[in-house]
Design a protein that fits this description.
Elements: H1 2-27, E1 31-40, E2 43-51, E3 66-70, E4 73-82, E5 90-97, H2 104-119, E6 126-132, E7 136-143, H3 146-155, H4 165-175, E8 186-193, H5 205-215, E9 219-223, H6 231-247, E10 250-253, H7 259-271, E11 274-279, E12 289-297, E13 302-310, H8 324-362, E14 384-392, E15 399-404, E16 407-411, E17 418-419, E18 431-436, E19 439-444, E20 451-453, E21 456-457, E22 462-463, E23 468-472, E24 475-482
Parallel strand pairs: 5-6, 5-8, 8-9, 9-10, 16-17
Antiparallel strand pairs: 1-2, 2-11, 3-4, 3-12, 4-11, 6-7, 12-13, 14-15, 14-24, 16-18, 18-19, 19-22, 20-21, 20-23, 23-24
Helix pairs in contact: 2-3, 2-7, 4-5, 5-6
Length: about 475
């Protein structure tokens, strides 16, 4: 009896000592994931996911609980707001598998889930559609038109025999770098896939991880476990999960829950984040990679998460010294002057035509031969010499010089000014370089797979700078020029 009592006391002491440890361990399981960082120095925005020990979003987070640093420089916390209350939108990139690895019934459910997601888009939300199979295509660039997006989704079918998942992820990540005023800063890639990439000679896992680490566009992935399950498929799903978590996104595997419900949960997860804004007055945009580290302080512990971000300098903007009102007034004056000139020229042209007709009618015996009209003098564009150097492709290091005064077309066709060799992902007439006054402009010619400059996809014509790298298909070309 004595031994029994002593054993019970010993056990009770152990339980009493163990209980605080268990609670402390559970409480310390707060999860923080820095999903995305947007830099517009001196301001830095961080999109943060904070979950408690039960995997539920923390209800409230105060400004005094959030600290951040950029490299070794502390940042000042300005605000912490639940993302739903921030007034910002989301730029979705729907990455869709069009290979036959998805069953018809599954694809129909996916289409319905995507249509529901598009229908739920807010006024500030935008979305783009990228498909991957034998080829990777940007089916629809960023738009807020729900009818346009729904129509594009309805027309997609699963017809391809191959799956270029890796190239699709890279293309979607590059699309997420597009800069435009009407596209939200928050960018996410959503994908449902079995994780398989069976395209011979396709991009590797390491190439995808490198690009995701460079672009920092979070991937929210739904893993589709097809039966019969194989070891290869299990490994593929693990890699898909690695892509998602490495990018700052998340991974959910479809079990018994319907696909459309899983998709809805994933969309809800994207919105259940916090937007923290910091001031970084002492940080320079010097093109260097800096660690952005965000820490969350709880009652008795703190947790943190970070991303390595390249702080690129802003493109120089010409200084005019004019206020907005002055600019508006000058634009109005210029428009009026242009209108007067047009009306004057038209009036004089009509008068000359009337005088000529009157003179012709008054001299019937005039010889039939009429002297040619005077040649209109056109100012010749400034001549430029362009050097094309293949950085990546079938002919790395190959150089070619071209001269242009008007425009130059790049593509696979023999008729192009610069012909890309050995790349079937390049369109016949892929992109065009034009000379506008003294600037070189580059734009995509509705190519199948799009054009990028320094990794950023082209959505409209933009200025081409000396040394820019133009990406088309699997080829990258550095373009250098001089007057």
């Amino acid at each position: 009896m004595l031994l029994r009592n002593m054993f019970l006391k010993f056990l009770l002491v152990k339980v009493v000592l163990l209980v605080p440890a268990v609670f402390t361990l559970a409480y310390s399981q707060t999860q923080v994931r820095l999903s995305q960082v947007y830099v517009d120095l001196p301001r830095v925005k961080a999109y943060i996911e904070v979950l408690d020990e039960t995997n539920v979003v923390v209800d409230s987070l105060g400004t005094d609980q959030v600290t951040a640093s950029v490299g070794t420089t502390p940042a000042k916390t300005l605000s912490v707001t639940p993302f739903r209350e921030s007034g910002e939108g989301v730029a979705y990139i729907f990455l869709i598998d069009v290979s036959k690895s998805l069953r018809s019934a599954q694809f129909v459910v996916l289409q319905k889930a995507l249509a529901a997601a598009i229908d739920a888009m807010g006024e500030k939300d935008r979305a783009a559609i990228v498909t991957f199979g034998t080829e990777v295509k940007i089916v629809q660039s960023f738009t807020g038109s729900q009818s346009t997006l729904t129509g594009a989704i309805a027309e997609i079918t699963t017809t391809d025999n191959d799956t270029q998942l890796h190239r699709g992820l890279i293309r979607a990540s590059e699309l997420g770098k597009v800069k435009a005023q009407d596209i939200p800063n928050r960018r996410v890639i959503l994908i449902l896939s079995d994780g398989m990439d069976d395209f011979a000679g396709g991009m590797t896992k390491e190439e995808v991880l490198d690009k995701l680490a460079e672009n920092h566009i979070p991937v929210y992935a739904i893993g589709l476990d097809q039966s019969p399950n194989t070891r290869i498929q299990e490994e593929s799903l693990k890699v898909l999960g690695e892509f998602a978590r490495t990018s700052g996104g998340d991974y959910i595997e479809v079990g018994t829950q319907p696909i459309d419900e899983v998709y809805k949960d994933l969309l809800d997860k994207i919105w259940r984040t916090y937007l923290a804004e910091f001031s970084c007055e002492e940080v320079e945009a010097d093109g260097q990679v800096k660690r952005v580290q965000v820490s969350i302080s709880m009652d008795d512990h703190s947790v943190s998460s970070g991303l390595d971000i390249r702080f690129l300098p802003k493109a120089p903007v010409p200084e005019t010294g004019w206020s907005n009102q002055q600019k508006t007034a000058m634009a109005a004056v210029a428009a009026v002057v242009a209108l007067i000139l047009i009306l004057t020229v038209r009036s004089r042209t009509r008068q000359r035509r009337a005088d000529s007709e009157k003179e012709a009618s008054s001299t019937p015996n005039r010889p039939a031969s009429v002297p040619p009209a005077p040649t209109r003098m056109v100012k010749k564009a400034k001549l430029r010499k362009l050097t094309f150097t293949v950085v990546k492709g079938t002919e790395p290091g190959h150089n070619k010089d071209l001269e242009m005064t008007d425009e130059l077309v790049i593509g696979r066709s023999q008729s192009c000014d610069y012909k890309v060799e050995g790349d079937d992902e390049v369109s016949s007439r892929h992109c065009q370089i034009s000379l506008a006054e003294d600037d070189l402009m580059i734009g995509d010619l509705n190519s199948t797979n799009g054009t990028s400059v320094n990794g950023a996809p082209l959505v409209q014509f933009r200025t081409l700078e000396d040394g820019d790298i133009v990406g088309l298909g699997r080829t990258e070309i550095r373009i250098s020029f001089r007057d």
